[in-house]
Amino acid sequence: MNTPTAATLRRTALHSVHKHMGARMVDFGGWDMPVEYPSAGLMKEHLAVRTGVGIFDVSHMGDIRISGPQALAAVQHISMNDASRLAIGQAHYSALLYPAGTFVDDVVVHRLAAHDFLLVINAGTREKDFYWVRDHVCAFDCIAEDLSDQYTQIAIQGPRALDTMARITSADIASLKYYWFTHGNVSSLDNILIARTGYTGEDGFEIYISPDAKISEAVWWELLDAGKEFGILPCGLGARNTLRLESKMALYGHEISESITVLEAGLDRYCKLEKGDFIGRQSIEKQKSTGIAHTLVGLEMIDRGIARDGYKVFDTGSEASEIGVVTSGSYAPFLKKNIALAYVPPSHSAEGAHLNIEIRGQMARAQIVPTPFYKRPKKQW
Amino acid sequence: MAYPSGFRYTQQHEWVNVEGDTGTVGITDYAQQELGDVVYIDLPKIGATIKAGESLGTVESVKAVSEIYCPVSGEVIALNDALQTAPERINQDPHGEAWLVKLKLSDPKEAAGLMDAATYEAYVTAKAKEHSA
Fold first, then answer.
1. Which among A163, A269, A342, A374 has most CB atoms closer than 10 A?
2. Is B64 on the interface with A (CB under 8 A)?
3. What is the DSSP letter of A199?
């Protein structure tokens, strides 16, 4: 078998810190990444982010900068959201689509300047995304640069993320709105991109610092120190996955992929058909009138058992026919329930409807529930 | 955590404690550490006859599903029902309170073919080294 060994996997600048902290490492999209830190464990990491604060090394994420006189037109061509509506200093969720309306990847687009954009992309699709972007912006007067290796990206997430960050920056981050960013100091480092973004369903920040190992490690330890009072924990990809699942955020290769369309994934609110032409638009318009064959629903298990990725979904009729598939499923540490996301036909997608999940040859009942499963409490003023 | 000296161990990280013709079966401390937080356990029915090496059930952590293999052959005579509602006990006391099933052994001598505590400890120490390499 030709699977990459730990030696050939890519490492972030914080790799030796993870090893030092005893992290359990896994291959994630060709990267040797921490899945959990056993001193606390996934469950406590998850809860720290819901009730306090946690930090994640997300340096494996990729970054593409598009700049030049026609950068806005180029971004509008390749990204489904409307970048003309972004103010400088603002970001939004979007996706790069194939002509069929399916996903190259999902992205967060940051507007750095009028004609300067930073697209943050997934780790496993870094090369594919960059080549796709480069090939499709070449008709515009702009340049696309792969900046993926120029940042250590750390996510600081949770209701106490602001308190933690406030201790290591003098930037005015308290007044920064969700999905806006600023530049400021992070401890002794100047002019750092600090974005109020994340992938956990909580308030939080993502910072983009030098990929130098010494600098990255120093910031990591300073963050852990700054958040000590709030119960800060380093968190691995395991908690990142359960947190995003509770908040029904899509994961590439699961809820979104090269064969799933924007409409099926239920992400049409980020797809602005009215902005003009872009790659994938025609197919989506067409699918809007012809309808979709599958739609993404949230499930809660009624019977015992956990529906995992790839498990088959059946209807509850006497001749139980296969109607869909689970894309993500887990025990939800904060909600303390077994939850899942699955694709089923629209005819079987009504909230409250019962379905069966085949778990190791046995049928287990599940119920369709409203999503997101978890929504963070509104700020109390 | 020390591996009890009276138990016998498998390469798949199950243990069996033989007392007379009864064998108590569980998973090892190494197994629970590898799994992480256990959130679900599926066990056979009382009266089921299971051969050594066959599936005894499954244990799931938040991130993974693992098969449990029966270390010895026998008939299931008791289940640890408390684990259904408190599977996290497997993380807390894998060699004690969180036993999984009791078997009436088909051959009480069968367990002698498994690893003793010292051999098992050396086996998992080598495995842990492999991991951190």
1. A342
2. no
3. S
Quote the CATH superfamily of domain A62-148. Answer: Aminomethyltransferase beta-barrel domains (3.30.70.1400)
Q: State pLDDT tens for residues B105-120.
A: 999 999 999 999 999 9
- CA proximity to A117, closest of A38, A157, A197, A63: A63
CATH code, domain with B65: 2.40.50.100
In a domain, B54, yes or no: yes
Interface predicted TM-score (ipTM): 0.85
User: Count of alpha carbons within 13 Å of A371, Cβ hemisphere only?
Assistant: 25
Selection from A52, A3, A12, A2 nearest residue A32 by Cα: A12
B129 within domain boundaries: no
- Report how far residue B32's alpha carbon sits from residue A239's, in angstroms, rounded to the nearest whole number: 18
Chain A CA closest to residue B133: A6
B36:A241 CB<8 A: no
The residue extents of the domains of chain A are 15-59+151-246, 62-148, 293-376
Q: What is the pTM of this model?
A: 0.94
> Each residue of A98-146: pLDDT tens digit?
999 999 999 999 999 999 999 999 999 999 999 999 999 999 999 999 9
Q: Which of residues 78-107 of A touch B (CB under 8 A)?
A: none
Q: Measured between beta carbons, which residues in chain A are less than 8 angstroms from residue B36?
A: 24, 36, 38, 41-42, 238
Q: In the CATH hierarchy, which top-level class contains the domain A15-59+151-246?
A: alpha beta
Which residues have a Cβ under 8 Å from the Cβ of A209 and sit 6 or more positions away?
Answer: A151, A152, A153, A154, A186, A189, A192, A215, A216, A219
- List pLDDT tens digits, range B28-41: 999 999 999 999 99
- Taking contacts as CB-CB distances below 8 angstroms, the residues of chain A near B33 are 38
Contact (CB, 8 A) for A343 and A272: no
Torsion, CA A132, CA A134, CA A135, CA A136, rounded to 10: 80
Please check whether residue A229 is in contact with residue A194, taking contact to mean a CB–CB distance below 8 angstroms. Answer: no
Which CATH superfamily, name and number, covers A293-376?
Aminomethyltransferase beta-barrel domains (2.40.30.110)
Please report the pLDDT score of residue B133 as a whole number.
53
Residue B99 carries which side chain, given as an amino acid letter? Answer: W
DSSP-derived 3-state class of residue A306? coil
CB atoms within 10 A of CB B24: 17
Asked, as a colleague might, if the bond just before A372 is cis with ω within 30 of 0, I would say yes
Does B63 contact chain A (CB < 8 Å)?
yes
pLDDT in tens, A24-71: 999 998 999 999 999 999 999 999 999 999 999 999 999 999 999 999
Is A234 in a helix, a strand, or coil? strand
